[in-house]
Amino acid sequence: MPLATLDTPVGRLAVEEVDGAIARAFWSDREGADATPLLDEARAQLAAFFDGRLRDFDLPLTPVDDAFHAAMRAAMLAIPYGETRTYGDIARALGTYGQPVGAACGANPLPVIVPCHRVLSATGLGGYSGRGGVETKIALLKLEGGYPLLI
């Protein structure tokens, strides 16, 4: 599967393409330099996001087969740049509980692109499964100006 990497302020991110869609984004120590039009566009959009020039990604993403995870992806994508929601907010909207929402955020295969960093606990930041953990979440929220107490 084609893979490309980009050095960002939160570490080297890799993006993987499968069947003409972005399937995964993850932190990687290795260099990936596959060139496809989609990977080139993903790298360009990620660079623009980290430079503060892009607020919403416009990339084809692999479909989600499970209805709950598809609803979670839609809920995370609906959170505007610079804003946050709580696990409880999303749970209420989806008719579920906070724990499965948190688990789905932690299992997000497309961090940064699908902004799980914008989902917080009712009493603070909550967790973050990406490299660097909560420090990476804080960096992403600061980048967006989305958590005023951190600025």
Helix content: 25-40%
State the end-to-end distance.
39 Å
Strand content is 15-25%
Order of helices and strands: EEEHHEHHEH
Q: Globular, elongated, flat, extended or rod-shaped: what is the shape?
A: globular
- Which regions contain 5 or more consecutive residues with pLDDT less than 50? none
Q: Which class of secondary structure composition applies to the elements?
A: alpha+beta
- CATH fold node name of the largest domain: Arc Repressor Mutant, subunit A
Give me the side-by-side strand order of the main sheet: 1-2-3
Q: Class of the largest domain in CATH? A: Mainly Alpha
Determine Rg (CA atoms, Å): 15 Å
Question: Strand tally, please?
Answer: 5
Number of self-contained structural domains: 2
What is the compact description of this entry?
It comes from Thermohalobaculum xanthum. The protein is α+β, with helices and mostly antiparallel strands. It has 5 helices and 5 strands.
Would you give an account of this structure?
Residues 68-145 form the Methylated-DNA-[protein]-cysteine S-methyltransferase DNA binding domain. This is Methylated-DNA--[protein]-cysteine S-methyltransferase. It comes from Thermohalobaculum xanthum. The protein contains five helices and five strands. The protein is of the alpha+beta class and 151 residues long. It folds into two domains: 3-50, no CATH class; 67-150, Orthogonal Bundle (Arc Repressor Mutant, subunit A), CATH 1.10.10.10. The strands form two sheets. Strands 1-2-3 form a three-stranded antiparallel beta sheet, covered by helices on one side. The longest helix has 14 residues, at 37-50. The model has no long low-confidence stretch (mean pLDDT 93).
